[in-house]
Fold this protein.
Amino acid sequence: MIPICRRRLFEPLQMIRSGSPRVRYWKELEGSQRLSEEELRKIQWQRLKSILSYAYENNPFYRDRFESAGLKPSRINIPEDMARLPILTKREIREAGTGMLSNGFSSDRLLRFKTGGSTGVPLEIYVTEECSEHRNACARRHDRWTGWEVGEPVGALWGNPKLPRDIKSYLRNWMLDPTIYLDTMAMSVQSVSRFAEKWKKAGPTLLFGHAHSLFLFANYIEEIGIRHVRPRAILSTSMMLLPHERKCIERIFGVRVFDRYGCEEVSLIASECERHEGMHLNIEHLYVEFLGEGGIPVEAGNPGKIVVTDLMNLAMPFLRYSVEDVGVPTERKCSCGRGLPLMEKVVGRSADFLIRKDGTRIAGISLIENTLTRIPGFAQMQIIQESMSEIRIDVVPAPQYMEESGNLLRQYMKDLFGPDISVVLKFVKNISSEPSGKYRFSICKVPRDKSIGI
């Protein structure tokens, strides 16, 4: 009864009071997802042309980029024309700062988001409230694909969560956004047990959080013997969920995991629906490219750098932004009937590909999956390529660890990277997360050669 009141009474009254268009945007998205892909592509292309023209006319940062490339928005008539516009990097964003704002926008009147990503070097992103509400509406649509409904409580595993601090914020949380948090920066038997007690009182229907944190949480739940934490669905985000982690989580909780992919800079990029046949791209709000060597689009089924153009952020446009992740596009259609196209999966971060002496790259996530599932004795690991001649592996040993486990791991790496590679195992109690709460499976410290593909 309470969730219905939140959905039908509390939220509508709050939206009227604040003048927020979130509910209207959400209902529009609920309808547009059922359009055909052709119809959605037309909407996407119109919005792309509009944001390109807007940036050219109103944003000095982008006008310079257009002119340096000898390009005008009016000349971009087919997708291939986009290749002439330079790709935007994180470094350029940091260097430009508020110089990326469009004319008429002031940083002190915009919503500011700060993200360090996996590098720990912060980026500051500015958006209007309208853009933020478009993002919130989209997230809600995709949340509902899990079976969760508006107004139902959520259990969230998140790093440094913003918790209610006074009566007003507590009431707002209870009436509009009922969420209980477990801080992933301090997970322990004690904190998980306290979270489980909160769960018993709040009764969340959705468990939401960083992918690897969900895996760790599931193991704590099993270790402690907690039985009452039973969500209707689990939503995994922020990073890739390894196949064996997904199986473990689904076994312990007895429900399916939904994968979601996005970033602070452009928000939600792709999500799994109830059919779990791939990840639907958010093409109403984004224009997504998958690029290979030389910036050429890759064919379906092949990994490519993910480059995104935000179609909604007028204040600080992100045009052809490299999110530094690698994904696999597909031409398959989902049996759910939605017109939103699919991507197969996210393979890993560009920086998380390790380099062999012949210049080929190996996805760190694949190495982790192959070793953790094939060699007994390891609970967690992180691979750090210090140089072309040295690899360090931080490992959390499992109870069944034996010396032979370490020997097999070293030999596996030597078979891949060559017999001369130095493989150093460092035994640790846990793999630390990034300041954002995310975990990195592999880190490559070797300078990247731009001539090497992805």
